[in-house]
Design goal:
By secondary structure, this protein is of the alpha+beta class. The chain has eleven helices and ten strands. The chain has three domains: about 120 residues, Orthogonal Bundle (Butyryl-Coa Dehydrogenase, subunit A, domain 1); about 100 residues, Butyryl-CoA Dehydrogenase, subunit A, domain 2, CATH 2.40.110; about 160 residues, Butyryl-CoA Dehydrogenase, subunit A, domain 3 (Up-down Bundle), CATH 1.20.140. The strands form two sheets. Strands 1, 2, 3, 4, 5, 6, 7 and 8 form an eight-stranded mixed β-sheet that branches. Bound molecules: flavin-adenine dinucleotide. The site of flavin-adenine dinucleotide has 20 residues, from strand 1, strand 3 and helix 11.
């Protein structure tokens, strides 16, 4: 990983013995590098066979990467936002599949528990998830509720010392491998203003929770994308996350974390396309010379490098803003700044990665149009980055809305 001079030295959430030191950062970078190197040959085979890669999780456990951004006192590595973003950049050089697993596990799985959980919830879920005993996921999307989660129909009702949940969640990363999912539901039989969304930490064990992998996808073959249905699925009363009715706010805050993961991943895809193309430009010969000596090929390479440089600047700027917001959880201005800069980074980097991987495919010529080579795999995989965790359209409305002010809120 490229060391980042601008990375703050303080921990993600804590100070003192729990602080994230320069040595911790070095060790984390080394572990991520070793993880990626061991993962690569297995990932290549799984990708070509279009199947889930269990080594993504197994090796993450081996290298202690299952809670990179979770404070040490809960069993994680205690990384700051910039270092965690950098780790995701490196991991996404191996593909968006592995990086999407870490999004589900940490960016949108562990993060809301850390941010909104009671001490008891943190103790019950975080150490276990960091040590490999509890894979996490985030379930907001439903068949009829995507960009607007308030159109969801999943319900909960209280029965004795538990809640019973009913409904279907759709397109959920880690959905069939997760042991616990942070998900969102509405009070059963309630309409009007009182119908507010609430977050729960849901254990997935039991036959009232039916799950199914979604295979009809043109990329991201090696990670798990799923749907699941809950039929009177019991959830402990003390597994409500945050206050009743606070679910929308929790989901929106969590998506800021998820979007930063997507933006970081896209930067990784661009970096990998660039290094693959530099090698290919120097080895492939046509018309009597290396193709890198043809000016029109250089045009493609220059565009990939500009996509990389600009995306990197936006990702680091967004990660610093998110760090500042996480360090001051009650500060609305810092949250607004993080939300804005992360939306910009996600929108920019996902489009930059789409274009950069297309340039890379072109440089590879006929070989480029093949899953056997890395550029085409990135091209296939990064297309979804303009859709999940908030579409391009939603990001643009967020950005314009912030510039114009509340009266111009296009969501209303
Ligand atoms: C591989 C994959 C993994 C995913 N992982 C997760 C996960 O882990 N957890 C989870 O909860 N979800 C997950 N999702 C779901 C994802 O976040 C949604 O697909 C996304 O938010 C868009 O919702 P939708 O698909 O319902 O599209 P829709 O909301 O139906 O949108 C359709 C189109 O209409 C546009 N549109 C919608 N509203 C407006 C508007 N107001 N103004 C302008 N245009 C608008 C959209 O931009 C889009 O172009 C995943 C999706 C995929 C494909």
């Amino acid at each position: 990983m490229t060391p980042i001079a601008t990375a703050p030295m303080s921990s993600f959430h804590t100070t003192g013995t729990d602080a994230f030191t320069a040595d911790d950062r070095k060790q984390l970078e080394a572990d991520v590098e070793a993880y990626c190197q061991e993962l690569r040959p297995i990932e290549e085979i799984c990708y070509l066979e279009h199947r889930f890669n269990p080594a993504i999780v197994d090796l993450a456990k081996k290298y202690n990467l299952l809670g990179m951004a979770v404070p040490k006192k809960y069993g994680g590595r205690g990384s700051d936002s910039v270092t965690y973003a950098r780790a995701l950049v490196r991991i996404n050089r191996e593909g968006s599949g592995p990086r999407t697993f870490f999004s589900g596990q940490t960016s949108i799985g562990q993060y809301p528990v850390l941010r909104y959980g009671t001490e008891d919830q943190k103790q019950r879920y975080l150490p276990r998830s960091c040590s490999g005993g509890c894979t996490m996921a985030f379930g907001l999307t439903e068949p009829d509720a995507g960009s607007n989660p308030l159109e969801g129909t999943t319900t909960y009702r209280r029965e004795g010392d538990k809640f019973l949940l009913n409904g279907v969640k759709y397109l959920i990363s880690n959905g069939t491998i997760a042991d616990a999912i942070v998900l969102f539901a509405f009070p059963e039989g309630v309409t009007g203003a009182a119908r507010r969304m609430t977050a729960f930490i849901v254990d997935t064990a039991g036959d009232t929770f039916e799950k199914e992998q979604l295979h009809a996808k043109p990329g991201l073959f090696t990670c798990d994308t799923a749907m699941f249905q809950m039929n009177d699925h019991p959830v402990r009363a003390d597994n409500m996350l945050g206050k009743e009715g606070e679910g929308f706010r929790i989901s929106m805050h969590t998506l800021v974390s998820g979007r930063l993961s997507v933006a970081s991943g896209c930067l990784g895809a661009i970096e990998d396309c660039l290094s693959e193309c530099i090698d290919y430009c120097k080895t492939r010969k046509q018309h009597g010379k290396e193709i890198g000596k043809h000016q029109l090929v250089q045009d493609h390479l220059a565009k990939i490098e500009m996509a990389r440089a600009a995306s990197e600047a936006m990702v680091i700027r967004a990660a610093l803003a998110k760090q500042a917001s996480d360090d001051n959880p009650g500060d609305a201005e810092l949250y607004g700044d993080a939300d804005f800069k992360v939306a910009q980074a996600k929108f920019f980097a996902s489009n930059a990665a789409w274009e950069a991987s297309d340039h890379a495919v072109q440089i590879f010529g006929g070989r480029g149009w093949s899953e056997l080579y890395r550029p085409f795999r990135h091209l296939q995989d990064v297309r979804v980055c303009r859709i999940y965790e908030g579409t391009d359209e939603i990001m643009k409305m967020k950005i314009a809305g912030k510039l114009l002010g509340k009266d111009y809120d296009a969501f209303k």
